[in-house]
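TL;DR need C-alpha cells for one chain.
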Amino acid sequence: MNAQTPGWDDLRMVLAVCREGTLSGAARLLGVNHSTVFRRVNALEEKLGVRLFERLPDGYAMTEAGESVRVAAERIEHEVLGLSRQLVGGDLNLQGTLRVTAPDALALKLLTPLLRRFALRYPDIRVELALANDYLNLTRREADVAVRATNTPPESAIGRRLCALATTIYAAPACLAADAKALPPERLDWLMPDDELILLPASKWLKKNYPGARVRYRSNSLLALFEAAKCGLGAAPLPCFLADPETDLRRLMAPPQALHSELWLLSHPDLRRTARVRVLMDFLAEAIEAQRDLIEGRDA
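>> reply
TL;DR here they are.
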C-alpha cells in the first residue's frame, strides 16, 4: 500500500474528530488520550500534505479535504461494521460478549437485578452495561441491545415494545403541605431535566401547565433528580418504577398522559440470528412483563 494512503485507524481518528468537533470529544469516543488524537491528526495531515481541519477557538472544523476524507471513511466504516454484524449475526452459541445500553435510572434500578439473574442462567455470556442517556448507535455496534424509553423507536432497529412507562411528580414530605395535593405547584421548587435530556417531555409539560413554576435545580441524570427530590430540594418528574417504591417520596398527582412514554427493547436487524442476543431479549421481555404494574404506575 502506498505510504501516503491512510489506514483504517487514521480514518477512525478523522471520523471521531469530525463527529465530536473537538480533540477531547474524539478522545473520549475512541478511549484514548487527548494528546494521542492531537499527535495522530497532525501526523496524518503531514503525511497527506493537506490540512484536514481548521483549528478554531471552540474546536475543529473540517476543510474541503477533511470533508472528502470523512465521506470516504464513513463508506469504509459502513462496510467494516456490516461485516462485523454479519459475522456476529451468524453466531449460534450461547457464549461471548453482549453490550447493553440503557439510561442510568433504567440501567441501575431496573436492569441490574435482572442482569444478575441472566448471568446465573447463562454463565458463558459476558454482559457489558453502558449507562447512556443519549442514543448509542446500534448500526456502529456501540451496543448490541438497547433498552430505551421512547415513543418513536428508530426505523433502523428491530425489537419489541415492552410496556408503557409512566412518569409523574414526586416530592419529599417536608416539601409538602399536610395534604400533598393542596399546595399550588407554583409555590413549589422544581427539579427538572436539563437540555441533555431534551427528549423527555417534562420541561414542556411544566411550562405549559404551570408557567409560573420556579425551577431551582436541573440535571442530566434522572437518578440525580431522584436523589435531590429525596433530600427535599423540591418536586421532580420521575418514572414510577423509580419513585413509587421509595418511602421518602410522595406522588403529587396521578401520572399525566403527557409524561407517558414507552419502554422498548431494540437491536440491529443483522443480529436477529445471534443466539445470545435472542436469549437476552427474550429473558428481559419476560422479566419486565412481571413488573409491568410498577413500570406503568399501577403499583402505588
